[in-house]
Design a protein that fits this description.
single chain, mainly alpha, 81% helix
Amino acid sequence: MKPTSFAIELWDLVPSVETVEPYATTFASLAIILIAVQILLQRRSVNADEARLARESAVFLHTVFGDDVFREERRVLGAKCEQPTDKMSDETRAAIKAVLHRYGLVSLAYKHGGLNLDMINSYWGTVFLKDWDRLKPFVENERQKNPLLHSNTETLAHTLRGMKRA
């Protein structure tokens, strides 16, 4: 099959490689520069997001763990958590549940990406693990009613314990 004269005329209109090469090289160079700039901007954005998460984590952790009410609840926990659960006063049970609630809030925030694990570990990791060890018998007793109680807190405790070994 012979090419038609229209196809031949159309092919003659296409510029040669030698004519197009300088423009194609320039276009490819510009595309590479634009991609590099976009990558740098994305990296800067990610770094800014990580810095913001660290700042917000510090403020949140200080708010949760730094107030006097929490410190008093921990004092009650430390003094009376060794009691058998059925012999605990309402005040002791309330203090223990309040401490567990705060740890659960921190654990939930971490689980959903709202807190930086290194920040938790640096700010409160050792105390968290000490408290978890003291709270575990109370939690096990409470889990007789609901086996899933405080599972996020337990998961965070295991994660922090793994970091302590590293």
